[in-house]
Design a protein that fits this description.
The chain is of the alpha+beta class. The longest helix has 27 residues. The radius of gyration is 28 Å and the shape is rod-shaped. The N and C termini lie far apart (56 Å).
Length: 198
């Protein structure tokens, strides 16, 4: 058996720490803590995120403050889930393309090079549009070599942009939705847990 107590700021009632004593004798005396700069002890278990001390009692924070705490927690959870989904492979044109940060950077450089090649006349079906002796290929998430002409590289980049836009806007809807919507599982936010189609 342990003995819970909480340490809080006397001036604001904000709980700064929750503690447990192994024996009753180890519990600090209830009330102000000497030379602590305004801290005090109360012999109650508490949740510092959702509770505070008022009149030497642990009570729930005001409803408006709890709603804001819930909104912040929801935004954090949605952002974390959104970033995880954004990093999942994209299925496009029958292949799965990696979408981790390094792959995205490589695709950005390829898109810039392909756009330049198109602007100076690269034709559809020309796999040597990049100026090298070998056809341009992209290695997929399944380790396949997929030949791409400049137009296909630009189309792939656009597919990524469209998927990202869809995910970001779906995440925003989840953030601004009323609190009851949090009963919906986070995985319901996006159509697929494993992959997203372009």
């Amino acid at each position: 058996m342990t003995y819970p107590y909480s340490i809080y700021e006397e001036a604001t009632g904000r709980i700064v720490s929750t503690c447990q004593a192994a024996t009753r004798d180890q519990i600090p005396r209830e009330g102000p803590i000497a030379e602590s700069g305004g801290l005090a002890v109360i012999h109650e278990r508490s949740d510092p995120t959702r509770q505070c001390v008022r009149g030497m009692r642990v009570v729930d924070k005001p409803a408006e403050e709890l709603e804001e705490i819930d909104r912040r927690a929801r935004r954090f959870d949605v952002n974390k889930r959104r970033n995880k989904v954004l990093a999942k492979p994209l299925r496009y044109a029958g292949h799965r393309f990696d979408m981790d940060p390094e792959s995205r950077l490589r695709l950005l450089f390829a898109w810039q090079e392909a756009s330049t090649a198109i602007s100076v006349g690269a034709q559809r079906g020309d796999l040597k549009w990049h100026g090298g002796p070998e056809p341009f290929v992209w290695i997929t998430a399944d380790n396949e070599e997929v030949p791409l002409d400049a137009w296909q590289v630009v189309a792939l980049a656009r597919a990524v942009q469209e998927r990202d836009r869809r995910i970001v806007f779906q995440a925003r809807q989840m953030k601004v939705a009323p609190s009851p919507s949090m009963n919906v599982r986070m995985s319901d936010l996006w159509a697929s847990e494993e992959e997203l189609q372009a």
